[in-house]
Amino acid sequence: MASEHIENKLKLLPDLPGCYIMKNKQNQIIYIGKAKNLKNRVRSYFKSSHTGKTAQLVSEIADYDYIVTKTNKESLLLEINLIQKHQPHYNIKLKHGTMYPYLKITNEEDPQLIITSDVKNDGGYYFGPYPNVHAATGTRDLLQKTYPLRKCSKNEKRACFYYHIGQCIGCCDHHVSKEEYAAQIKRIRRFLNGDVKTIKNDLKAKMAEAAENLNYERAAEYRDQISYIEETVEPQNIMSKQYNNRDVFAFYMDKGWISIQVFMLRQFSIIKRDSALFPCFDAPEEELTSYIVQFYKQKNHTLPKEILVPAKLDNELIAESLDVSVATPKRGDKRKMLDMAKRNARIAHDEKFRLLEMKEQQTVGAVKTLSEALNLDYLKRIESFDHSNIQGTHPVSAMVVYEDGKPNKKLYRKYHIKTVKGSNEYLTTQEVIRRRYGRILREGGALPNLILMDGGAIEVNAAKEVLEDELNIAIPVAGMVKDDKHKTANLIFGDNLDIVPLEPTSPAFHLLQRIQEEVHRFAITFHRKVRSKHSFTSKLDDIPGVGPKTRTKVMRHFKTLKAIREGGVSEIQSLGIPEKVAIEIHKTAWDGQKDNPYQKGD
């Protein structure tokens, strides 16, 4: 089941294409995916049943982020680069062997043009990523026929087969100068950077000539080569040559808060997205200017070739401060990218405030609804009680405090039941209510606006009797009744303890559920601790030679029987306890354990 935080975010997902980024509890990226419709795709993870690896993935998702794109094609190419950048755990598992390929010109004495999915900082030239290996292979084959580099291995002693058919530069046959390699690499880089008009026109002419000569097989080959170019090389929105080595900054300002988005563009696509959302105390253009300079000075980001920013910023000031070109595009591909960043800034801003509104509705809004349902003034402070025991042994009670619909754990309290023997909900409630509010009256503390008892008429009447007849204070008391599955079912209140009509889907009812679950958790955790401590103490008391002082020493040092087992006899002796007694303490700690070293035959 999705957390409350994720449930709220799911309601705000846009019906737009983009990439989603799944994160675990440590805020690590564990999966990246793309979607034609972010709302439908991301919701499917949490609203559908899953098995296998997908179920495991969903169980680890603690939060998610997303980037909105203009088209589904953009989201695909963005997904490629984000996966290459972050190498998420589940992408590696689920897409093993299908990572998107790059073309690479190697950095060596006789360079090659190869296909790789592993991008390294090794001085080579990388181009891509490409949609599939088939398209990248076709482009590489085309380039090897048109602008060949070394294709053979370095072990060739004479001209290789590829040299004879014009697909190898010939280093196997003769020395090739650095200048010749540089000229050939320049042609390849221009081609892969989008300058494809010349080669396309040449191929079209050759295709027409081959068809005219009835050489249809050759014409089909040229046709396929043109197709490869159009599929992998020609400029497209998010991989345009205009996007290489640039950073894009945009903002959206409303309600006194500024949302900033940063897109870092390398290798012709977004390799990283950064964002910020904070109160704005100056003109938003001034805040963004300051943020940009800090982004590079303090965060130690590498400066790009160019920074794109919105209008009304002091571009000259930023350029002088960072020694980099700063521009505000008016039209074209660069403007599209700037608009895309602004769009994401607005989405992030709107999501933040809509989440705050939802949180407000679930806390203060829920309290207002509950107050109205009980016909009471605003219930700013609610205190809730629950009891815990096992067949009347080690009885305890616990109290939690909610202020404006949110838990205040600093005010939680625990109670050892002192006057009641066995399991008696009525008397236990009276003791706790008497101790809690008698002390507040003596010390002049603040009283709650409502008391919620985890129970039915017995607990409510017991609390009201002490408050009204003994302490003479008027605090409304209601009871949270559970069903046979131990879940919140009804709220009872008033002289006749009538059921308060609350819709099970309302924020007020959900608030009651959270309070009841929290007070039960707090009480049962306290009871387990008391029971464990009592068991520890009882076992020590039964050991000959262990008096109150020795028991206190052992309890303070070890705290649990498990710690005694792990510490061993020597650690017990280090507390000043004789060896014989230390052995008995260690032996007692092992009683009932499967691997007891003191059992006969061991």
TrEMBL record:
Keywords: Cytoplasm, DNA damage, DNA excision, DNA repair, Excision nuclease, SOS response. GO terms for molecular function: DNA binding; excinuclease ABC activity. Gene3D superfamilies: 5' to 3' exonuclease, C-terminal subdomain (1.10.150.20), GIY-YIG endonuclease (3.40.1440.10), UVR domain (4.10.860.10), UvrC, RNAse H endonuclease domain (3.30.420.340). Residues 248-467 form the UvrC family homology region profile domain. It is found in: Cytoplasm. PROSITE patterns: GIY_YIG, UVR, UVRC. The keyword Oxidoreductase does not apply. One of its GO terms (biological process) is SOS response. Residues 15-92 form the GIY-YIG domain. Its main location: cytoplasm. Residues 197-232 form the UVR domain. GO terms for cellular component: cytoplasm; excinuclease repair complex. It holds the Pfam family HHH_5. The keyword Endoplasmic reticulum does not apply. Belongs to the UvrC family. Interacts with UvrB in an incision complex. The UvrABC repair system catalyzes the recognition and processing of DNA lesions. UvrC both incises the 5' and 3' sides of the lesion. The N-terminal half is responsible for the 3' incision and the C-terminal half is responsible for the 5' incision. This is UvrABC system protein C. The gene is uvrC.
